[in-house]
Design brief:
Elements (H helix, E strand, L loop, with lengths): L1 H36 L6 E6 L12 H16 L3 E6 L11 E5 L6 H10 L3 E3 L12 E3 L2 E3 L6 E9 L10 E6 L2 H22 L4 E8 L1 H4 L4 E6 L1 H5 L16
Parallel strand pairs: 1-2, 1-3, 3-8
Antiparallel strand pairs: 4-5, 5-6, 7-8, 7-9, 9-10
Helix pairs in contact: 2-4
Organism: Streptomyces cyaneochromogenes
Protein name: Secreted protein
Keywords: Membrane, Transmembrane, Transmembrane helix
């Protein structure tokens, strides 16, 4: 009988220790995730959405809705809350609340401001007229054109301003098409643990390539490069044209 009791006690202690260990690891993983996203328990965050091109009313493309749903799931996993805000009504600076900004500058005024302020080494061609460079990215000296449905690019960025631990990051999902916005959010959802281990809570800008989206949707994504330095380094100002004078 004593051996049975001792066996039951030992099993109970082992189970309790196992439960404590699993709880500790789960909480540590959660805290690391919360730190990366800047979302402690019950924190508030902003989901800044772009406006579709169909008119003045707030309309969001189908793939951008999917992107928002993926981000909402990440936020919920951090025990935090989200507020959806149209891009042209967002009125706050950096670092107060974590911000997730979705959509390229052609449809998202907030993204335009972020690129100008935080990523001066990035240019996005927003010309309305068709042409080979329409929608193209320039990052530093490199140019990335879009081939819709076959080869498209997106920038995924986690940016902080200042060194305070209380500063909340800004996440940018700037794609050449709506489906690449979703591809960038899905890439973050799948790889945030690896990104957290590699980059910590520092700023990082990644260039992603979405391959054959017409067949694979937002699922096949390749990491082209870490372009943090090039994206944060201002592009040189074009030289002013010289005036030429003819001798009379």
């Amino acid at each position: 009988m004593r051996n049975i009791v001792l066996g039951v006690v030992a099993a109970g202690i082992s189970a309790a220790l196992g439960w404590l260990a699993r709880t500790y690891l789960w909480k540590r993983k959660l805290r690391r995730k919360q730190a990366f996203f800047g979302l402690p328990d019950n924190a508030e965050s902003l989901l800044v959405v772009n406006r579709g091109a169909g008119g003045p009313e707030l309309t969001v493309m189908r793939y951008d809705v999917f992107a928002l749903l993926e981000l909402a799931a990440l936020i919920k996993d951090c025990n935090a809350h989200a507020q959806i805000v149209p891009h042209d009504t967002a009125r706050q600076g950096f670092g107060e609340r974590t911000e997730f900004c979705v959509g390229g500058p052609a449809s998202n005024r907030r993204m335009t401001a972020h690129l100008a302020s935080l990523l001066p080494g990035v240019r996005v061609n927003v010309d309305a007229e068709p042409g080979p460079d329409r929608g193209a990215f320039q990052v530093g000296s490199e140019r990335y054109r879009v081939d819709v449905g076959k080869e498209e690019y997106a920038l995924l960025a986690r940016l902080t301003v200042g060194q305070s631990h209380e500063t909340r990051p800004v996440f940018l999902f700037c794609g050449q098409t709506a489906i690449t916005n979703q591809a960038a959010t899905r890439y973050l959802a799948r790889n945030h643990e690896r990104l957290s281990r590699k980059h910590g809570n520092n700023s990082v800008v990644l260039l992603l390539k979405v391959v054959n989206s017409q067949a694979y949707g937002p699922d096949v994504v390749e990491l082209v490069a870490d372009v943090t330095r090039a994206a944060q380094t201002a592009l040189p100002t074009p030289a002013a044209p010289r005036n030429t004078h003819r001798a009379s």
